[in-house]
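Hey, quick one: can you model this chain's 3D structure?
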Amino acid sequence: MMNQVKVYNDELLNGKRSLGDPPVDEFIKNVFADNAKKLQLQQWLSTKADPDHFALFKAAYPDVNFITQASDLPQWADPKLMKAGSVFFAVNAEMIMSLLGLLSLPYCYTAANGAMVLYLSELIRKQTTKRLYDTAIFVWEVMAPDAFSKHGNACQEILKIRIMHAAVRHYTLQSNKWDDSWGLPINQEDMAGTNLSFSLIVMRGLRMLGFKVSPQEQTAFMHVWAVIGYLIGLDKDLIPENTKIAQILDRSIKDRQFCASTPGKELTQSLTDHILKVNKSSATADDILGLMRYLLGKEIADMLSIKAPELPGYKITLLRAINYLKGFKPDGDTQQNYKVAYAKFKKQSAAHVEKS
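Sure thing. Here's the predicted structure for all 356 residues.
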């Protein structure tokens, strides 16, 4: 990758907080000035991902580079690493998806200024199940074995998120509720932090739960998310070239942005209410919240007011042992693993989404 920055200091990251995604922000400004064009865009954003629809959408905007080039991967994208990353996901999909709720999302909520966007929109608090489902579907689609092929949906799903980010920036700034001291809504630093929470932090969570993750598997998984970051409009110097640099960036953002806040606590409360509501396992509420405290660490869990007894050591040891033994199971067929796991997720989620 092209990252040349090894130290993410305040000067650099303060500048990133004032940056969104200029070409897409300008596009949204122009489209939203015309009701017919706005409606056309909204209709496409609400359609199910489909290669034919994607081609028609590109054809509708032949002079908009970020749309016509939405399927162009960066020069440094490594097909072998991306394939290996999708294989790793398919094998560990169930736990990775669980970690998004138990670890990745609350980790993001601790960044108080960035969390204000979600808090002000109220959607994640009032439509928690639907919004979490949409996030999960995005992850499933971009991690599919053929996600970035001409038959895959990754590039279309990423472009939709990129455009929706710009739309949220537009609406939030127009709401007169935004304080400029928080930085630009969905700015570059916050996007970098989110990308890390779905990649580096997931790897950290898997290891804490006893899963065997080789350096090669971690590199492959994080490479997929680096490509996603590039396509979603993340600045090149915020796309870490390796795990060490990712850890430095994560630490810098954490030191700068993480603190206790009302938005972070309320978003976390909505999340934990959802998790406990849909829980069908034998795990108690204390078990689940205790596991979140274990994964997040006491400092962050306290910032988010996740209240539960510490998970007993024997339960953590047992969980780690079970997950470690799972690592000896043959990987099997990647396509089949992914297909079965995705179908299971949709079946389990359908009833909850309909009720929400």
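One thing worth noting: The CA atoms of residues 295 and 301 lie 9 Å apart.
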